[in-house]
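Table 4 source record.
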Amino acid sequence: MKIYTFIIQIFAIAILSWLIGLVAPWWSFVIIAFLSGIIAYRHGTYSFWAGLLGVGIYYLTISSISSRGDRFAFVNQIGEVLSTGMEKPISGIFLLWIGTIIFGILGGLFALSGSLIISNEPSNKIGSGRAKTKVKGLKLDLKRFQ
């Protein structure tokens, strides 16, 4: 895999998530991550990291731009409310990073799901039709217990 296709996938997820976020609900970024996993079919690891980084860049950029207008006062107030009873209040910047990590993992999982849906790799899992039927080890004679 070429590195530039990986980078293009990351920025495509970030830009398309922003564009769809203008007209669709806030959770619509997962649809973009899922579709990118299907369209730009890569190994599952690359799809996960592309989704994580793409959605992480999108969320961190959007939340930083929207919070910069009030000098992060709103997120700092949320941090104070969440840290009621603690000695030191939680920083608003820390909350933005926690949100970025959570949203990034969510985007990564959806991109991974998209790439695994079209994966043609055989599996030995139950229900795949390729499960092993022989049992090694202890053999149980069920006729004795009837």
